[in-house]
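Structure tokens
________________
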Amino acid sequence: MASKPTKGKDGEAPEETTKQLLHGNKCLEKEAQDTQEQSQSYLSCGAKLRHDPPDMLITLNDQNRQDLAQIQAQQEELIPRYTSKEQEVRSALQDTEASASLLDTELEQLEPYKEHKVQAEQKVKALEKELRVTRIRCAEETHAIRSQRWMGSGAAWSRGSCPCPWQWGEMGWAF
């Protein structure tokens, strides 16, 4: 006949209760080990502190006060230096602004001359164009006169009167 599994007070099988108890025991052992490690760490820190002289222990507040005092000393040293540099820069800026203002005034005074310059440039361009046209006309007229004289000299050639270079002056040719 098969034996019936016995149940504990809570109605659970004894194997399950045993597993739960073993698991709980392992957790407790791990916590105990962690606590022991923390205790050892605390004790070693305490031993270190006992070996250090009492003035070696600096609180965070003391450290902050020292840092603040150092920063204030640096500030007192830097403020005059940068104040003088600021004055130099301000002076240079004022000089530059004065120079720019003077240049603006000079530019305003030169503005009427700018219009005269533009007008003069336009007049020069017009005169250059007129000069080119005049040169072209002069060249055309000179060419026409020379070709008429050349044609006239051909008639003199046929009559037997040769327009030799020594006679060119007589004919009105001027080269």
